[in-house]
Write a structure and sequence with these properties.
The protein is of the alpha+beta class and 298 residues long. Helix content is 46%, strand content 22%.
Length: 298
């Protein structure tokens, strides 16, 4: 993929994101014994992730087996049937609108079934690619990364229920699906587990020094090829991901840790609280203390 292709793809993604205002109507992950949902259509979008267990689904005219790490996308009005095999299945799902409608979105219950075809409550067709082409079992290479975001959205929807946070997570999920289906990610399929592990390590421990050479060796790649594939599959460089994850962790610590800003700076590997505050302000737009004051009302 050339720099020109990447730039064009980025512009298209910005245009797509401007068209979306996701609304999550229902969200859950749970164990189910042998189960069956008869053929039906729903008014909203349905995203299903199989964590464990097996089953057999049909979406439209396509019938397929499902198992761990499979991701299923079902658009509004599309007839589908779902069956989980014994002994049990752990499944996560999200019912959502891509575009919020103040008249329908809050009113229609999650999972309300209809006959296929037009219905007054049906989410209107979304014709913009690549989303318009998604149907059934999606051959994403990054299922676990998508599931991690789904877990966050489910927890937020069923917990604090902060609409902006849930909507933002849905945008991340859609972006992650697009990444997992992109030609660059598909081309890197054999390397994806190592690239995913590298990204997870960065996200979980962003304060650790970034050792690109060891990550590249784990993926059996040169440093330069690793950086190239990482950017193409994750949409940003390892260092950009580290900086973003570090500030996300900083926000969490500032709000919930109960320790001083100086201690947070030390925990995150900054040599001085001034350097930390400057990095925080550059990324978040306000100082740590101002962020704390605004979010907690202190």
């Amino acid at each position: 993929m050339s720099a020109h292709d990447t730039e064009g793809e980025g512009e298209a993604n910005h245009e797509l994101s401007a068209m979306l205002s996701p609304y999550v109507r229902g969200a859950l992950e749970h164990w189910r014994g042998a189960w069956h949902i008869a053929r039906r259509a729903v008014a909203d979008y349905l995203l299903v992730y199989i964590v464990s267990g097996t089953g057999r689904f049909s979406v439209g005219d396509e019938t397929f087996d499902v198992g761990p790490t499979d991701l299923i996308w079902i658009a509004p009005g599309i007839l589908h049937e779902m069956r989980g095999h014994p002994p049990k299945m752990f499944v996560a799902y999200l019912h959502f609108d891509l575009v919020y409608d103040p008249l329908c979105s809050p009113r229609i219950r999650s999972g309300t079934a209809y006959a296929a075809g037009d219905h007054a409550d049906m989410h209107p067709p979304f014709l913009r690619q690549p989303i318009a082409g998604w149907r059934g079992k999606l051959p994403v290479v990054n299922g676990p990364a998508i599931y991690a975001l789904m877990k966050q959205a489910i927890a937020e929807q069923r917990g604090a229920r902060r609409p902006l946070c849930v909507s933002g997570l849905m945008l991340e999920i859609i972006g992650e699906i697009a990444t997992g289906l992109s030609p660059s990610a598909t081309g890197a399929r054999a390397r994806w587990p190592a690239l995913r592990r590298a990204a997870e390590r960065i996200r979980v421990e962003p304060e650790i020094n970034l050792d690109l050479s060891s990550m590249a060796r784990a993926a059996h790649l040169s440093d330069s090829h690793f950086r190239k594939l990482f950017r193409e599959t994750h949409g940003e460089s390892p260092r950009a991901m580290k900086n973003r994850a570090l500030m996300q962790k900083a926000c969490d610590l500032v709000l919930h840790s109960g320790v001083s800003i100086s201690e947070i700076a030390f925990q995150l590997g900054f040599s001085t609280v001034h350097n930390f505050s400057r990095a925080f302000s550059r990324e978040i737009g306000v100082s740590p203390r101002e962020y704390q004051r605004r979010m907690l009302g202190g």
